[in-house]
Design a protein that fits this description.
172 residues; alpha+beta; 2,3-Dihydroxybiphenyl 1,2-Dioxygenase, domain 1; 2 domains; 8-stranded mixed β-sheet; 18% helix; globular
Length: 172
């Protein structure tokens, strides 16, 4: 009689189905790659705000805890603040000057959801894949972003009006 047991395990961002097969007193361990997961998770949701200090107070009341980190990203002309709730993060973004992308966003659309960021294992490979799929990259090379990340944005015209950010943990 042949029996098996299985469980899902994670190894280096890839999912494998592990089967232990028992037949005639021999054990076979077989790893079957189910999927090379490209978008690992929603890393954070970016929200454009006019006043970071006031918004920090508002979100602290909403989430029941204060922000855990603030950071300036000079290359984007923004001040950021991060909140964590469970495994998810919220990034508040305030423009440092009128020419920053956040200032232009707020001028056109007002405060609100600016982008959705996805964690990826290999940002350069994901950028190549998405460009081949027809998505428009806003930068051809990853940039340094907040929270120790390499980032790349996809143009909203190619993603149903949603600005998508790809994030990879930086290895310093």
């Amino acid at each position: 009689m042949m029996g098996y047991s299985g469980s899902l395990i994670t190894f280096s961002g890839h999912f494998f189905l592990w089967y232990l097969v028992k037949k005639n007193a021999l054990l076979f361990i077989t790893f079957i790659v189910l999927k090379n997961q490209l978008m690992l998770k929603i890393e954070h949701i970016g929200i454009a705000v006019k006043n970071l200090e006031e918004s920090n107070e508002l979100f602290a009341k909403l989430l029941g805890k204060p922000h855990y980190k603030t950071e300036i990203v000079a290359s984007e002309g923004v001040s950021t603040s991060f909140f964590k709730t469970g495994p998810n993060k919220i990034e508040l973004l305030e423009a440092q000057h009128e020419e920053s992308p956040i200032a232009r966003f707020i001028q056109k659309r007002g405060e609100g959801v600016h982008h959705i960021a996805f964690a990826v294992e290999d940002i350069r490979e994901e950028m190549k894949r998405l460009e081949k799929e027809g998505f428009i990259l806003l930068n051809k090379e990853p940039k340094f972003g907040a929270d120790n990340k390499l980032v790349c944005f996809l143009h909203p015209k190619s993603s149903n009006g949603v600005l998508i950010e790809l994030c990879q943990e930086r290895e310093d």
